[in-house]
Structures are given as C-alpha cells and as structure tokens.
C-alpha cells in the first residue's frame, strides 16, 4: 500500500500552525514517529495537542498507519459464570519474544454477546457469528459494530475488498435458492432475482443488495472447508474433493468474482490450514494423531509448484499434562498460523493453549481454559469505513462492547 505524499497530510494537519514537535519537520514527526505507534498509543497522543489530532485523523495517515501494524493471530476467549457464558474477548496473540504469557494475551475488545465466534477477517474488520443463527461485523479497534441481516441458512466463506468498486464484500453460501435467500435477507423480493439456485452469493456491505449468484460446482464441499486465506487478490480454501475425485484447492478471484481450481500438493494424511508465509502460499498437513506437521509452500504460484519445506514433530510428552494417561489416543486441536516470517503452531489441549515453534520446541504455555485459536489474522485499523453508518443497528463504543 503506497502512502500519500507526506506534505499533503502534514500541510492539511498543521495548516500554518507551529510545528508538531519543535526542531523536527512535520513530515518526520508524522511519517517516522506517529505512524509507527500502536493504535492505543496513537489515540492517547491525540489528547496532547489539537494539531496532533488533525495529523493523526487524516484518512491517508490512517491507511499508512494500518499498513504498518503487525498481523496477529486471532484468539477468542469466553468469560463464564458457572455454566453461563457472559462475554467474549477478542485477543490478538502478541508473540514477540520477551513478553510474559499474560502480556501476550491482551484483549483488544470484549463483547457482551453469548456464544460469539469470529468467522472472517479483513483489513482490521471481523465478521462474527452469534448463537450460530445470525451475523455481525465489527472493528474491535474503533469499537464500531453492526448486525447483518443474515441467518443460519447462510455460511460465510470469506470477506474481501472489491477493488473495482471500493466496497467490502462477503462471499456466502446459502442452502436456499436465490429467491428464498433474498427474502430471508431483505424481506419479500421486489426486484429481479438472481438465478434460482442453491450455492454461492456475493453481498456488498452497506449496499443492502444481494448482488448475484456465482456458479461453483463444489459449493457444498466449499461450505465444509475451513477459513479462507486472501492472497494475491484471491481467496483460497484448503483442498476439497473435486467432482473428478482429485483433491484441489478452491480459488476465488475477488476482482472478477469467479471460481477456479488450483493443484494441491500430494501428501499423506489430512490438510489442516492454509496461510501466507514469506510472500508465498503455505499449507500444513498432519498425520492422523496430529503429532507430526508437514509444512508445504507454493514455490511458484503460476506453475502451481509445491515443495515440502519442513516437518515439525510436536513435543508430545511436554504437551501432555502430568496427570494425563498415556494409554489412550491423543485428542487435541492444532492450528498453524504465520507470525513475522515464522510459523506458530498453536495446540489447544486440556484447558491450555500451547505455542510450538518450527523446530518442534514448546515455547509458551497459556493457562487460559476458555481461550481458543483461529486461523484468522487481525491487523488493527483506525480507518473508519463509510458502510458502517448505513447498516441498521450500527453503534460505536456501545453495547455489545463492554
């Protein structure tokens, strides 16, 4: 993402006022200091001087600030009283070395809804499913929230920016026909309906329009796939069994809004996760017991040339708790996510979350019973989006944020 000219933002912010910091050009203060702050520190600095508030509120600055933020794996944790779920915390995992375990799990927001789960992420935005029956979108950093008029007949396949229009769009799967889906979303259909088929649809956030049906022969398999990865302007899903019987990766071009297939690597066992690593598309596969993780990377995207990068043997004896019996099979959840040029292997097991590095070494143990890992990434953003106010039920810094 290219930054706007520094002088443009600086001139608009200061408008002939005294320098932001005496002895330093405003361009240096804005583009070398303020733009590097974390969102919480940036919000605090706005209270120092009015000129700082103007400089850090310009959209061009906020886009550049967002581009500099690290992408952290998203965890979510439930707070319970007895057996009742009271709230959900959205937790970016800050895996920088030297931080204490508690400091790595600092919530960016808490929501007062019960049984909420993050479903998709893009540019600092999160789509949430609530009670498994409807959806909402939020920016946990700016504390903007709005419900979406979608219910359990839909599943979210991915969220993406549509570059030709500048809109954020949702790719969805519906078990109903287009006419029925339109009725569910918007009431009785009073406009020409898309093709009358069960399958995939596009919804533009804020437009109030179910745009169209998109043909996908593997829509049912895609619905059962895991979270999508946005890479090179396309959404990717881990391999599904194509109609021909071959295992293929599903790819959705977010500009043309059409599907295609990509060859998957040939590997034993099952595929767990897709991710971006060092500018390449990556994939993890595991044995049945999930004790050995193989990491594959797409060395050449155009020729679909996959190579085996490494094999990670999990430290089984260290992961097991002391009182755990060794006489039964291992049952744990393993998620592989990228983190600043390396991969993090997160293992959820017996009320704990454990982090393992690419050498198979146990790095950190988080003793948080209710915390669960996802394959989503959160790159915090203070950018305000125009579609939020157009959504019915839109709030800022209000319930369900607590």
Automatic annotation (TrEMBL):
Domain (F-box) ranges: 24-65
InterPro entries: A_thaliana_F-box, F-box-assoc_dom_typ3, F-box-assoc_interact_dom, F-box-like_dom_sf, F-box_dom
Domain of life: Eukaryota
Gene3D superfamilies referenced in this protein's UniProt entry, alphabetically: 1.20.1280.50
Transmembrane segments: none
The name this protein goes by in its record: F-box domain-containing protein
Organism of provenance: Triticum turgidum subsp. durum
